[in-house]
Amino acid sequence: MTKTLKRRRKEAKTDYKARLALLKSEKPRIVIRKTNKYIMAQIIKSDHAQDKVIASATSKDLLKKGWPDNKNGSLKTLAACYLTGSLLVKNLKDKPEEVILDIGLSRNVHGSRIYALLKGAIDSGLNVSHKKEILPSLEKINSTNKSSIVLAKIKEGI
Predict the structure, then answer these.
(1) What does pTM read for this prediction?
(2) Which residues in the chain belong to E strands, given as ranges?
């Protein structure tokens, strides 16, 4: 007899085993999701399996903060992800003591855009347990001269 998969697992949207482990920790979590154009991050607190969003930010918000309009196709670069993480922490009213990372069904690739967003949040003062080697270096985030200029300009405005 085969086991029937839940609908959200069939749609490749939810890993129920991982979600249960995150809920059991009873800590707020930073949820990072990628789309085709943007990257989104939220800090979510769960209470009796009911999720409440404490703060959120998307890379689309960077356009309002001074990201050049001619570079709106590059809102998933490492620099944009780093700034989105900084913006997320700025949107927090009360910083939680510790937050755990929830990347969902995304692949765990060291130095990727997900971890660039995490580095931006950590550099802005969020406490997330992590290993140092998974985060991309600032040299990699500022890899091109143009992105380093934009990064410095927007970082001042955030």
Answers:
(1) 0.83
(2) 29-34, 39-47, 50-58, 100-102
